[in-house]
Amino acid sequence: MEPELRRLVVVSNRLPAALKKEDDGWRVKAGGGGLVTALAPVLKNRGGLWIGWSGTSDPPADEDALLADFSSEAGYELLTVPLTEQEVEGYYYGFSNEIIWPLFHDLQTRCKFDPVFWRTYLDVNFKFAEVVARKTTQDDYIWIHDYHLMHQAFFLKSMGVKRNIGFFLHIPFPPPDIFMKLPWRGKLIQALTEYDLVGFQTIQDRKNFVGCLQKLMPEVRIEGRGAVVTVNMGTRKFRLGAFPISIDFNQFADMAHRPEVGQKAFELKEALRHRKIILGVDRLDYTKGIPERIRSIQTLLRRYPDLSGRMNFIQIAVPSREEVDEYKELRTEIEQLVGHVNGEFSCPGWVPVHYHYRNFPPEELVAYYAAADIGLVTPLRDGMNLVAKEYCACNISENGVLVLSEFAGAAAQLQKDAYLVNPYDMDGIAKALHRAFYWDKATCRDHMSKLRDQIRKNNIYWWVDSFLQAGISKSLGDFPEVDTVNFARI
Ligand code: GDG
User: Fold this and answer.
1) Burial of residue 330, with CB atoms counted within 10 A of its CB: 0-12 exposed, 13-18 middle, 19 or more buried
2) Average pLDDT value for residue range 404-420
3) Whose CA is nearest to atom 15 of ligand 1?
4) CATH tag for 249-457 (out of 3.40.50.2000, 1.10.3720.10, 3.30.420.40, 3.40.50.300)
5) 373 labelled catalytic
6) How far does residue 36's CA lie from ligand 1's centre (Å)?
7) For residue 359, how far is its CA from the centre of ligand 1 (angstroms)?
């Protein structure tokens, strides 16, 4: 008989809480990035377990106590997998960020196919799998997240540990001609076939995966059609599905409705003398297309002098992977470009580009979203892109326009009412921005209200439920909410 699943266990590279050493001692900070934003409200008060790395190889003696405080507030347990500096180097910076991240974003020239990275990736995956094996039971549903941990089901099976286990890939899955460049392509595909369910952001990602699977394992058969299909491998079957991730729409919209957030948005507009605001928000990453975006603003100002003095472009860039040289160089490139554009166009009382390199508190970010007239989201490639959805959720006036890259996963859902652009086409983006600048209120409202309806309906809870339904015929509500929590670290 199938076990009755009682607990949801999330496993990801990083915990939602990161330990950081500051001048006055260690602090626990809420983690950033899309994965944590999406999953934190889902597990909240579900009494489940989140397994991951705490972000430091040299944890303080009171690590447990620090995490226990976070845990009791969040309503789920946290369990750290300790990693050495050398493991972090090879598995995280190396294999995950110098091979899989660029390759899966179609940027294979940035890949460094070092076999040491691969071996460390396997070692660390084994280490995670040992923790999962020890700290979970057959009554748990194990949900593995993202490209750092693709080998979890493989290692659990090789240890003879039986678990109900699903995997979700937050980044794109590349087409066969790109994936086939990976020296360990066969082993990676095979590892993914060991899950009971593998989820992707879009149907296209799933198709790409099927294309690779059929090339490397021609004997497999795909059965069914629609969002979720079955792979028949002869001796066993597993499922593949497209589950576009989303946001807690109400949480963002409610925050935008708060008077103090409205006040902040107003102050921002006032400080910019009610010029139109074009907004970009990203982790500082080369996949997000930030230099290309700034160049398109330069093109906009060169080609359309009617906008001179009438708009501001605000770029919020959140520090990310700061230790990596490529990211340092990207930061320098962006800062130089901002300087160039401002040098070329600013005049007394008007500096066209405002650039912020820091993490904003959520209320402030929402105030920026709410104040922006145009959300400019132009990644070169992106699994989904939650910023696009957050911008719409916070645009409570429904006067805004979403200008969106056709290579963001979000485009598959939002294409009808977003203004789609090619992020490499600076003339095209400039033209789109110029047109969007002059859209009348009724046109903006018509599109924005439809975008918001779609995101409100297909929100983060819808995403979790569709994954859990496909994986174990359950919904999030089947994992009962806990009233009072006071967890200690296991
Ligand atoms: C990966 C995939 C996929 C940004 N600046 C601030 C801030 N943020 C938050 C945003 C948003 C998150 O960071 C970024 O999420 P994205 O989805 O845009 O991008 P990734 O981090 O690359 O996420 C992506 C996602 O996973 C989920 O599956 O969509 O394709 O690459 O939530 O709000 N948050 C705060 N201050 C900031 O200054 N508080």
Assistant:
1) buried
2) 98
3) 34
4) 3.40.50.2000
5) no
6) 8
7) 11
Residue-wise pLDDT tens digits, 132-189: 999 999 999 999 999 999 999 999 999 999 999 999 999 999 999 999 999 999 999 9
- Identify the band that residue 38 occupies on the pLDDT scale cut at 50, 70 and 90: confident
Nearest to 268 by CA among 334, 365, 386, 361: 365
Amino acid residing at 25:
G
User: DSSP class of residue 421?
Assistant: E
d(CA 439, CA 399): 9
In a mutational test of the pocket of ligand 1, which residue from 386, 394, 402 has the highest number of ligand atoms less than 8 Å from its CB?
Answer: 386
pTM of the model: 0.96
Q: Which of 170, 205, 285, 447 is catalytic?
A: 170
Phi-psi region of 399 (alpha: psi -120 to 50; beta: other; left: phi over 0): alpha
User: Measuring CA to CA, which residue among 7, 34, 147 is closest to residue 389?
Assistant: 34
Ligand 1 atom nearest 377 alpha carbon: 18
Q: Can you tell me which atom of ligand 1 is nearest the CA of 408? A: 30
What residues flank ligand 1, with Cβ below 6 Å? 32-35, 37-38, 170-171, 245, 281, 283, 316, 318, 359-360, 362, 365, 382-387, 390
Q: Give 303 Cα–ligand 1 centroid separation in angstroms.
A: 32
382 is catalytic: yes
The residue ranges of every structural domain in the chain are 8-245+460-489, 249-457
The pLDDT of 270-292, averaged and rounded, is 97
Q: Are 8-245+460-489 and 249-457 in the same CATH fold?
A: yes
| CATH fold of 8-245+460-489 | Rossmann fold (3.40.50)
How far is the centre of ligand 1, averaged over its atoms, from the C-alpha of 201 (Å)? 14
Cα 172 versus chain centre, distance:
11
pLDDT in tens, 440-478: 999 999 999 999 999 999 999 999 999 999 999 988 888
Q: Specify the pLDDT at position 489.
A: 37
